[in-house]
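Below is how a single chain appears once it has passed through the pipeline. First comes the sequence as given, then the structure the pipeline wrote out for it. We keep one example in the README because the format questions we get most often are answered faster by looking than by reading.
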Amino acid sequence: MRRLDPEAVAFLASEAARRELEALAGQSLDPLTTLAALRKRWSEDEAAWLYDQARLRRRARAKFPRADAMLFEAEALEQASAWPVARWRAEHVFGPYERVADLGAGLGGDALALAHAGKRVLAVERDPVRAALLEHNAAALGLAERIEVVRADWRALELEAEAAFADPARRSGGRRTVRLDAMEPPLADLERLADRLPAVAVKLAPALDKAELPARAGLGFVSLGGELKEALAGFGELAWPEPWAAVLPEGAVLEGPERPAPAGPPRGFFYEPDPAVIRAGLVGRLAAELEAKLLAEQVAYLTADACRPTPLARCWRVLRHGPYRLKTLRAWLDELEAGPVSFKRRRSPVDPDELARKLGGRKAGRALTVTLTRLENRPWMFVLADPD
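Resulting structure:
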């Protein structure tokens, strides 16, 4: 992609570029033909900026409901929170606070969500291109009056805010990192900020090493549509005393403390907890709420006599289960008149893709799920169906 500069952002924000981008929104973006057509009306740089922006807007639709009104930069878009996550955080984490600072605000995804939730936002961004994108996006979404954009390093400012949010860059030497001291800024800088502001929340990689987290930090995890999206560390008034998991889009929240869950043999129903629940270490607490038991130690699957619908876990009826044998599994699927089969695995040596190839495609019939795990110190298989 062609590198953006403030001049490029000013061009893309112009009325002529806006009309061109609207036209591109409904076209095929074949690079050769699209760029050739654009170069008949625009300079080489302008054509490249328009083409790149049209592609980024299409990519951004998965994160932003009004992506076609916004401008983007590739790396900042990749790091930006999905809109439902940013909205939930703005409303439920920062709900009590009227003025919130977004530190290293990027192209504005989190600042926009905070403003949309009625906050007054101090958006601090030291990169001039991203700051310009943020200003455009705030205006495009009608939120400019609620967002003050400051081009600076927040560490050099006296922040006039009740709370702060930060989403540090998680790349080191060009590679992604989950180490808290390798982020930019490092977590230690943000922890010290809690000595100056009442409340601070920091977005972290879900795969963080919890042992690296300062003792005074609270921790929660957020998923969206069954995919784990972020960890959130809190300091000051947001130093939650117990871990929590938030499951979106339903907005269900499970809070600690954790409690041990006894293991038991497979029963009539099978639960897979949401990944936010698993990562927060709250499987035992969920098991107690569902009157369920663990299938095995260190395997985050639950089993119960009844299925209780909950956003915090997915439930299936157990049709068959036993030690893993390909011949037996094929016979079970034939007997059950299986159609499309999906596969899940946890702590099993059996490769689901290889197993699917061996079983062959099944089109007509009942949709079933095969889960591969480990019980009784050997590979185990479950054939599952949606509950009635």
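DSSP finds 13 helices and 18 strands in the chain.

See the next section for the split statistics.
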